[in-house]
Amino acid sequence: MFGPTGWVFFGALALGFAGLLYGLVRAGNVALKVVAGVLAFAISSLFGAALVNQYYAYYTSWGALFADASGGNVVGYQPSFGTGPGGGTAHGGQAGAVGPIGAHEHRGGVTSRPFVTPPAPTLSPLPSSSAAPSMTIPPLALKAQPTTGSGRVVQLDLPGARSAIMRKGFVYLPPQYFQPAYAHTSFPVLELLHGDPGDPSGWVYALQVPGLMDHAIDNGTIGPMIVVMPATFDGKHGQDCVDAPGGQLDETYLTTDVAADLVHDFRVLPPGPNWAIGGLSDGGFCAANLALRHRGSYGAVVSLDGFYSPYSDLGVLDKIFGSRSPALEANDPSALAVDVRSSLPRFWIMSGSGDLVDARNAQYFEQILTTREPIESVVVRNGRHTPAAWRIALPSLLAWTWNTISGGRVETGTTQLGGLPARLSPPGRVTASLQPA
Description:
By secondary structure, this protein is an alpha/beta fold. It has two domains: 7-56; 77-434, Alpha/Beta hydrolase fold, catalytic domain (Rossmann fold, 3-Layer(aba) Sandwich). The chain is 34% helix and 16% strand. The chain contains twelve helices and 14 strands. It has helices spanning 7-26, 30-56, 62-70, 201-205, 209-218, 250-265, 282-293, 314-321, 327-330, 333-336, 356-369, 387-405, and strands at residues 77-78, 89-90, 152-159, 166-173, 189-193, 226-230, 272-280, 298-304, 346-352, 376-380, 410-411, 413-417, 423-424, 433-434. A ten-stranded mixed sheet has the order 3-4-6-5-7-8-9-10-12-13, with helices on both faces. The protein is globular. The N and C termini lie far apart (52 Å).
């Protein structure tokens, strides 16, 4: 009731503001008037911030706010701690209890940006190809089974040898990573890209990915996998994860350098079918674009309220490449997806029915993808472009990702979440399951 989104908290702020205004009017002492005015202004600013927090649901408990502010339950990283190549591990506290929520993952203004129907995907005539529509994902010996324990979250520098970029990021290590039975096991990887504006701490605090991973691993919903959460840009805003001519090489950093750092410092499988990449908002575009530009580096793509054409963020990309640059088509997931010369990664796409722009973006890309392969589409009923909708979808995202990149059963069709029947198929398309080849 008295949490940062509770009406009791809002009532207390309103009463405090009213009391200070009363004091401002009634006080005879000038100094008291100044103090009351300053405090009233501070409370009104806090009230505005609280309204934004209530809408986006960044923080739903005070513990989340304090954990985000202090970096609670995240430990340092010591490459020398551990055994064998890639055996570096974290030391210190457990990560399973990373606070409820509290970060900044959303693209300000995305929902107000009008949906722009991109040009129909057109490519120069392609040679006939015998490539299978979907990438083959070899099954892993790792299995999902109920367990106990907590993983750990480490914050560390992820240096870019190829891109010359140095940024901090987070890595979630599952509880099995520290168990003797898995001492020589290499784990699959999920790479998560945040939105713009945003930073990787949002996955830890706002969306509680470490806690969701622990819960799903403990109850046997998923098996052990490593989650890396890098920073996608420097400064206030990003550049949609592309390499800017004469500028920052974000694509190189996220696809080449981050992977090299993980392979060097942790026991992970090499990039390929047993890796997944995903993101939210702008990060969803990044994930789809990078996976399709680097065929074979990722076996699966997951996207929360992403967009799938450079024309949806044309102002940003025109500044990077120049107006009408051929680089636009080269960074267009909707065009790259119809290139039959190589197989596609598997796709999981989420949108909220409460946001028309996100829903249309998802439907547009789904229509293109399903000309090649069936996908998994998740719709959050009445969901909008906020962390609240993403939290509802994340358990499904993690379960689907694990099943896919571990070489298990790949679910396809349409899942509706948020009070509707759990499993529905869209008209004219049959829900199917892809068995590993």
